[in-house]
Amino acid sequence: MAEVAQLPLNEEQLVSKYHRSNLWRLTISQALAGANSVVIYATGAIVGSMLAPTAVLATLPISIFVVGMASCVLPAGEIARRFGRRMAFMVGTSTGALTGILAALAMYFGWFWLFCFSAFLGGAYASVTVSFRFAAADGVPAEKRAQALSFVMIGGIAAGVIGPQLITHTMHLFPERLYVATFIGQAIVAMLSGFILSGVRVPDIKQSKEVVGRTLTDIATQPRFISAVICGAASYLIMNFLMTSAPLAMQMHGHSYESANLGIQWHVMAMYVPSFFTGKLISRFGATLVSTVGIVLTGISAMIGLLGSDVFHFYALLILLGVGWNFGFLGASALVLECHRPEEKNQVQSLNDFIIFGLMAIGSFASGGVLSAYGWEVVLWLSLIPLVLAALTLAATKIKRAEPLNQESRLGEVDL
């Protein structure tokens, strides 16, 4: 694919000519790329239970997906830094297409380890898609960045519909080879996303020389940063822990594949829909309070699961889990933004993400073994432990809201 020539450094002209096109391309691609991740989350544990040599490894594919995402975030950023965002997008979508092809082959031949490798590649694809919302803000005036980010996040809502519907309408196309057609469809969706992203054009703006900030040790030992990381990690860890186990738990309790797919669909939508007003809530009530509400909602979702195993209980759990994740994670992200200076942004956010995705991987690895060995109720009780830790940390740490460190630090503009 021919590389687009560098654009002249006239921000006003770039915004007026390319901004709207970029927004639509990135939003549609966010929906398509998000659908790829939803497919893996919705089918990973079920496919694992079908192909794994032991039930303990049922959720291993989803865990490997998270590992792939965590381990490829920094390489994806380096590709974007050296060769531009478009090159990173093309590498990512190519990896996404390969994910679907290898997963389809794994299902056809019954090769569990090939499916795990395809899940790792799916995580690599996801590590590229997390930069879509930042690409939307490239070259855009500060007062328009919030609108750009919000617009692109609509794609996350659409992903919650496209992914489950793709599964529902393709899973039985080859009756003796469940999900083969689904993963072929997943590859096609990634290719379509790559085609759309090939038209994204962003300005080539030279960055100023970075000022050396404080050491990571000094930053990481701040009480505010510790609270932010624990809260963000607990929110993401438990969301992933329960979402990974829920489809397989629904199957174990006699519910259909279609019911599990619909539950994941509502869950993903609940994760993203609140984002349109979460930023305003944080501005009005503070990041600490919003984070605390998120932790409480996540705990209530687990308690709902303990009340019964009907479809209603699973749906209510997954929906409330999504809302709780949104409040807890975005609130924690706002706290992180208060912990660093502009020149320290990359280091601090990378450390935060590394901790979160690392703990997510641990939770994913643990969920399959706990579910198969001890059952769904034990999974729910265990999920309360990190939540209690996060709540106690927030309560024990006196966090005062700080003024934004710079224009880019406001939630809803550049850093979400």
Automatic annotation (TrEMBL):
Q: Name all Major facilitator superfamily (MFS) profile domain ranges.
A: 187-416
Q: Please report a single Pfam family linked to this protein.
A: MFS_1
SUPFAM superfamilies tied to this protein: MFS general substrate transporter
Where do the TM regions start and end?
23-43, 55-76, 88-106, 112-136, 148-167, 179-202, 223-243, 289-308, 314-339, 351-372, 378-397
InterPro entries given for it? MFS, MFS_dom, MFS_trans_sf
Keyword entries, A-Z? Membrane, Transmembrane, Transmembrane helix
- Judging by the UniProt lineage, the source's domain of life is Bacteria
- By what name is this protein known? Riboflavin transporter RfnT
Q: Which organism is it from?
A: Vibrio hippocampi
Instruction: Tell me the organism's taxonomic lineage.
Output: Bacteria, Pseudomonadati, Pseudomonadota, Gammaproteobacteria, Vibrionales
